[in-house]
Every structure is written in structure tokens, then in C-alpha cells.
Specification:
Blueprint: H1 3-10, E1 16-18, E2 21-23, E3 30-35, E4 40-46, H2 50-66, H3 74-90, H4 92-103, H5 107-131, E5 135-138, E6 143-151, E7 154-158, H6 164-177, E8 181-185, H7 192-203, E9 211-213, H8 218-227, E10 233-237, H9 240-253, E11 257-260, E12 265-269, H10 275-287, E13 297-303, H11 307-319, H12 339-354, E14 358-361, E15 364-366, E16 376-378, E17 380-383, H13 389-392, E18 399-405, H14 408-415, E19 423-427, H15 431-440, E20 445-448, E21 467-468, H16 475-480, E22 482-490
Helix pairs in contact: 2-8, 3-5, 4-5, 4-7, 5-6, 10-11
The structure holds nicotinamide-adenine-dinucleotide.
Amino acid sequence: MLPEVTQFLATQPLRMFIGGDWVEAAGGGTFETRDPGDNKLLARVTAGDERDVDRAVKAAHEAFRKSGWASLPANERAVYLHRLADLVDKRREVLAQIESLDVGKPLAAAMAGDIPNVSSTLRYFADISVHARRREPIAVSGFEARSIRVPYGVCGFIFPWNFPLLLVGWGISPALAAGNTVVIKPAEDTPLSTLYFAKLVEEAGIPKGVVNVVTGLGETAGAALSRHAGVKRMSFTGSPEVGRLVGEASGRNLIPVKLELGGKGAAIVFDDVDVDATARSLAGAITLNAGQVCCTATRWLVHEKILDRLVQTAAEALTSTRIGHEWDAETQMGPVVSEKQRQRVLGYLERGQKEGAKFLLNGGAATVKGHEGGFYVKPGLLTGSPDNVACREEIFGPVAYVMPFRDEDQAVELVNRSTYGLANSVWSANLDRANRVAEAMVAGNSWINAHNCFPQGVPYGGCNLSGMGGGVNSPETFHDYLRPQSILRPLA
Ligand code: NAD
């Protein structure tokens, strides 16, 4: 462990970051965060409640009105964001160690994926903000008129535990670049990287109160943030169940809300693909982050002619995936985030079988020598009716549900039965067919001959149970954090 990480974890309980100060919760409460790789205590963290949220929203409002952040020229604000990105790059190893330990994701994945993605997202939105047009003249007879775009004010963010810091980067970068101030409520399972990130915000010299972090439980701190009348725009990433609650609270406050929710992504595989390569890609999709990826390929619809071969190759790839503690250099798939999450995955395997699904590859609990307390799960493949619970609902673990299809229409119909609508993929050498199917699948995103691709510049969001108002890494997302205002003068 790097000395910086040891030092960061040593000052317990870890405090929240409000108005530029590191503070304890008004109620004095704390909660634990544990290493999912062996269930050892990592830290005690302050548990904020309504009073702390209120303090944070007020600090963010004050910073919006008085710190000068909102009125800075975009290029000057961008300098701060680039400085913050530089610090994220400089402390990449520290952040990666913290993230890996808190989430259970392989250290190499945090080093090569999550953390660099945060700095590049900060830079992407900083650069967009410099070139964005914020004033448009309007040609209208008898008036001098223009439309301007201004930041909302305090934006609230509630995040899940699967990609904690990466999602903070995707969420707050456009809001900050547009001149808003933010209050973040990280997931209680994984608050650590967000708290360390707040230290970098401080070091980057970003004015006090522009970024605030309130740690705490969902039903207290999360609920208080979602209903606070001082929040002018809300963003929630997490489950559809909680998304509805946050959406309701935002509705009552009459503020716009962005909901990035769960998914049940499908992959349609036609019989003209390189079967082994596709099987390995799909196996990789369900072991990525131990399957805790909202948009990953969890329903595999495979042309009946290649089904056996694809399943056999995928099963071989999954069986040889090295499961281990996230800091073991050999590990390809770490634990799931908590015992609760492991029980959720195991519960779906059991319920799926009770409803008639069969294992093509046995999933279930796994143990790792030397880390017996960890929350490990073996990858599994199920097959059966499309109405099975394991095919319909989000499991959020290393499990796929495999079904054969005969023709294109049947495959598309099976995909579109889902109540979710986040992301799907189609795999075929025939690009006309692939493009046709990509457009026919109902979701925010369709990928061709790949799954889980997020280049900056391409919008990413869901429909149906997967939420609304996404965008994530595109110019549209930046504009989401600006509201229009018209200025008008009658000409004499
Ligand atoms: P969750 O909905 O249980 O929790 C998400 C956040 O909401 C946490 O910070 C939690 O503390 C908070 N929360 C809980 N109850 C609350 C309440 N009553 N009011 C306000 N906030 C509350 O989700 P999770 O288990 O942390 O994450 C997994 C889910 O997130 C999956 O469904 C996954 O698909 C989804 N997800 C979606 C995306 C996307 O971009 N669409 C990305 C990542 C994860």
C-alpha cells in the first residue's frame, strides 16, 4: 500500500467535505466501508444526514452566488479543471489503490481504466466549455433579441458503487465546466475515492463550496439531497427503484432530473461471425467488473447454428478466468462489492433454476485461498424461457442468460421484450443487417461487433426502466447543465 493511501485511511473517521472544510456529521454518526476481497474493515466514514446535506447545499449556493466560479470566463474555469485533471493523473496510483480496495475491482483495471478516464473526462468538458456558444442572436422583427445560456446553480449528484470515481467524473465534469456548483452523495459501499478526489479539488484551488461531498446512507443523506429545495438540477445513477424516488422528489421540486438506471443488455450473435472471438468478447463482458456493469451483455441471443460452439468457447473462457483478490496481479475478476450483492446474484441463480432455467455453466459462490472472507462468485451461464426471472431482471453479477434464435425478426423481438432500454449489441459480418438490427433494438445505445464502448463525443443514456436524460460524455451533456434565458428589447 502506498504511504499516501495508508495515511489517508489513518485519520478516522473520514470526514465530509463541505464548504471547503473537512467536517464530521452533525449527528456524529459513522458507517464502515470494507474491502470486498476479504471483508476487512478499510475505514469508518462520517454518516451525514439532512442537516449536513442542508449545510452542503447552502455552501454550494453561496459559492455559486459569491465565489466567482459561475461568472469566470470559460477558459479560466477550464484552467482549474485541467489542473484537477493533472492532479488525478499525478495521483493515479493512489486513487487506483483506493478504488480497487473499496470496490474489489482489479488494481490494473482501476489503473488503466477508471482513473485515467476521470482525468480525460475533466479535460474533455473543460475543452468543450471553452468553445461552446452561450449567446445566440435571434432575428425577430421589431426587437433586438438574443438567447443566452447560464448555469443552473446547485446541482445534486447521487452515485452508485460500481464505478464510483469514474461516474463522479462523468457526472460533475460537465456541470462544473458549465459554471454550476455541486453536492455529491457517493454510495455508502464505496465513498473513499470520492473523498480523496475532494482533497485534489482543494489542492487544485477550486473555490470553497464549488464541490461538496456528503457521505452517508441512501435513505438519509441521499433522500435529503434529492428533496432539498435548494438544488436546481438533479442527477442520479443507480437502480430503477431508487431512481423513481429521486424522480418523484425532483418532480415535487419542479427541477430537471437525469436518471441513469439499470439495464439488461442483450447481444444478438448471427451465424456469420468469428464464433470463438465473439464468445471470448461476450465472456469478457460478463466478467468485467465482476459483471457489475449496468449496460453489459447479460442476455445472449445466439443463432441456433452456432449456439453449441459459442457456449463451449465462452464456458472455457469463463472457467479459465482467474478469480482472486483485487490486488493479486494474476486476478482477472475480483469479488462483487458486498455480501448483500453476492446474495443478490446467488438468489437470482436459485430463483432462475426454480422457474425452470438450466445451467450451461455452473455459477455460484467461489472461495479464494487466503481470502476466505471475500465475496467471490463464479461466472455462470443459464438458459431457458425468455420469461424467466433471470432473463428479465437485472442480476448485476457475472451471469449471462443464453437463448437460441432462428431469424432476425425473432432475435429483435426477444431483445425488445425487455422493460429496460440501456444498451445492446449486434454481431455480424453483414454490416447492412447489423445496422438494421442496431436501429431496431429499443435502447439508448446499440453497438455493432463490440459491447461496452464509451468514446467521448457519443451520447450515452437509456430509455424505459433504464432512465431518462442521459448523455454522459457528449456535448449535449454539457448543454444539459446550462439553462436558456431570452433577452429582448423592443426597437423604437
Ligand atoms: P442504488 O439505487 O441502490 O443506490 C444508488 C445510490 O442511491 C447510492 O448512493 C445510495 O446510497 C442512494 N440511495 C439509496 N436509497 C436512496 C433514497 N431513498 N433516496 C436517494 N438516494 C438513495 O444502486 P446501487 O446498488 O448502488 O447501484 C447499482 C445500480 O446502478 C444498478 O441498477 C446499475 O445498473 C445502476 N447503474 C446505472 C448506470 C447508468 O449509467 N445507467 C451506471 C452505473 C450503475
